[in-house]
């Protein structure tokens, strides 16, 4: 009886189901915890007279929190900073990672050098993020930024323009941090393309470049979006390394401008992660700000969720477009 | 072989290795122009590999090395400096396993045409339709031209990849078991297509079907274990082969 039970694989199925249940429970627990602590924050306590508009007031409070400046106790600069640094990172890391992956997978000759590069890329993924922060300060801010100042902003020296922490260095550091993720995931996508498709393309008189452009990259584009989703999720929550390169507690002005490129790339920013860290631990009145910490955490999670949702929809469209059946049907 | 026919392809002492396994050994033959040449032989003897060496597809597979020469219109295709993409446009190949692109039926056929720089929609429509008609597929797909080609049946896919290959009008067409998944009627249509095509093009086909080889080909080559055993006019091969092995294989007494 018991032997039969084992042979049917029942314990195995129970183990699997148990693992799934436990993971679900942990994730759900985390979400519930944050929701519990954050949703009630803006519920008006007492409001003699007009109790009917409590909900309205509640929503208004949320809106003030989301859209207000730091001085007003709002987190709009942090939301904007997070979105900007992540999007700019995506713009930087995608072409770099995809090009590197295409080179490694399609052009580089298999051999000890390639293997060494692969190992290096994989190891880069394991480097603690704080190290990237130190590197970003030394290389990007002081070296790159300093050089830019010497070349183009001589007049305003010794006050640095780019040679000081700022948005562009934050995004570059994040791009470097997430580069291995993008390279590895894209390479996996490239490896998954059936050999037959490439051969069929070559057989019609395509050059290698044409095969890559017309078959390989379109087929690998869903994998690239997946890579980007991973990168964004990783980057949006980083705090520690970014303190070195341009993320601060609060900023006097938003990193926007009315002229092209509509961004103040050299300006410091603040981010949700920083805001959570700062108001949760650093603030002298941590007791009072604690509920707000949970509200900010909820906003950060929602933001990452929305970015991922956008990427997911993009991937679905790409899959449809390039006829990946498993997703279409 | 009679000498008055001109050779479109001339194979000279060709050998091919996969890693450390020799797959083709010292093959020499002349593939005549505007004729159909059939390759027959037991599974694994190297028919597909020989076909692939006519437009340098083998070098896209892992760890292969080729020795010897293959002349196309008298010029060695293995020489340094040969434009391989242009060579493959002139010498088209249809693989043993159909490999439609995961695009629409239309885009599959238009693919090679677009590579040639043909962009005008009307021209493309025309060429796509004519290629599909030649491959005996038009009637079945005319209503689903813009549906995914991956959903076609195996036999339809086989004709689609033939249509894709003939759309760019190669001078030489290499067909690796082009009718292996087809019903008798489609097979007949493909054989008619081959007959039409040979007026202008040179065809080389691989087949396991002796009747088909006898029916459609002008010349037949029998390969065994990477060697060319016999190569002659099909009539001669099927009525009076000079090698014992050929006779045994054709009559089914092989092995
Ligand atoms: N990509 C490859 N890597 C290694 N060996 C290969 C490869 N392709 C073919 N071979 C080997 O080369 C030999 C010839 O194969 P080929 O496909 O040319 O035979 P074939 O005559 O076409 O057989 P079939 O009638 O079954 O299609 C076989 O022994 C096969 O195992
Ligand atoms: Mg074969």
Automatic annotation (TrEMBL), chain B:
<dbReference type="InterPro" id="IPR003593">
    <property type="entry name" value="AAA+_ATPase"/>
</dbReference>
<feature type="domain" description="ABC transporter">
    <location>
        <begin position="9"/>
        <end position="250"/>
    </location>
</feature>
<keyword id="KW-0813">Transport</keyword>
<dbReference type="Pfam" id="PF00005">
    <property type="entry name" value="ABC_tran"/>
</dbReference>
<dbReference type="GO" id="GO:0005524">
    <property type="term" value="F:ATP binding"/>
</dbReference>
<keyword id="KW-0592">Phosphate transport</keyword>
<dbReference type="GO" id="GO:0005315">
    <property type="term" value="F:phosphate transmembrane transporter activity"/>
</dbReference>
<keyword id="KW-0067">ATP-binding</keyword>
<dbReference type="InterPro" id="IPR017871">
    <property type="entry name" value="ABC_transporter-like_CS"/>
</dbReference>
<keyword id="KW-0547">Nucleotide-binding</keyword>
<dbReference type="GO" id="GO:0035435">
    <property type="term" value="P:phosphate ion transmembrane transport"/>
</dbReference>
<dbReference type="InterPro" id="IPR003439">
    <property type="entry name" value="ABC_transporter-like_ATP-bd"/>
</dbReference>
<dbReference type="GO" id="GO:0016887">
    <property type="term" value="F:ATP hydrolysis activity"/>
</dbReference>
<protein>
    <submittedName>
        <fullName>Phosphate ABC transporter ATP-binding protein</fullName>
    </submittedName>
</protein>
<dbReference type="InterPro" id="IPR027417">
    <property type="entry name" value="P-loop_NTPase"/>
</dbReference>
<dbReference type="GO" id="GO:0016020">
    <property type="term" value="C:membrane"/>
</dbReference>
<dbReference type="InterPro" id="IPR005670">
    <property type="entry name" value="PstB-like"/>
</dbReference>
